[in-house]
Amino acid sequence: MAIITAPDEIAKLRASGRIAAQALRAVVAAVKPGVTTAELNELAESTIIKQGGSPSFKGFEGYPAVLCTSINDEVVHGLPSADRKLQTGDIIGLDIGVIYQGLYSDHAMTVPVGAVSADKKRLLADTSAALQRGVAAALPGRHIGAISAAIFNFLQPRGYGIVRQLTGHGLGYAVHEPPPVPNFGSATAGPLIEPGLVLAIEPMVNLGRAEVETQADGWTVVTADHQPSAHFEHTVLVTATGAEIITGP
User: Which pTM value belongs to this model?
Assistant: First the structure.
């Protein structure tokens, strides 16, 4: 569990987050019908490297790409492909990780490809709003479960399937560190939040049921009922007064 309080380390973490945010913005701007997910992956890699960072996902536990590209019923970890072209009406989850001078950041959002259905628009808006509620709940002295409960209590009344088999996590000096940050559960569960803690908060939300399964490629996680899914993520640094979004604008 990374606790980062030294000013020089915080500066590196912020730089890592800025690179991740800028790279993801570049990728989002390139999303349109006809673009391949491999082209988005190449753009992500070149943008990260030009800014002095390194991609953290490529090679992690054998993952072959820089960017996760998860379309429609794909929840997370979708593999980029030169054969996969975006189509009007799709939604695509874009997840990127960066290392800058030893500090890690992680950032994701799901965006529409052209015009999408009203249900998909609502799914994207509500998942993004749930992330903001989770960030606001990351206050020192509370438990990690306060983040989980804030996300769940916003989404559950709206009828979504909230993924339980995957969670947010700590990070800072590695891609994944303790503690897990579920998107469900009691507000008093988990360790206490303290200043310097770095967290990836990431609601993964399905239009249908909560259950997910992994495809034969060993990476791509899809909804069991093949309904659309959305994923939004920020890296945050807990301060004495709240959570600073490291991967913000």
Answer: 0.97
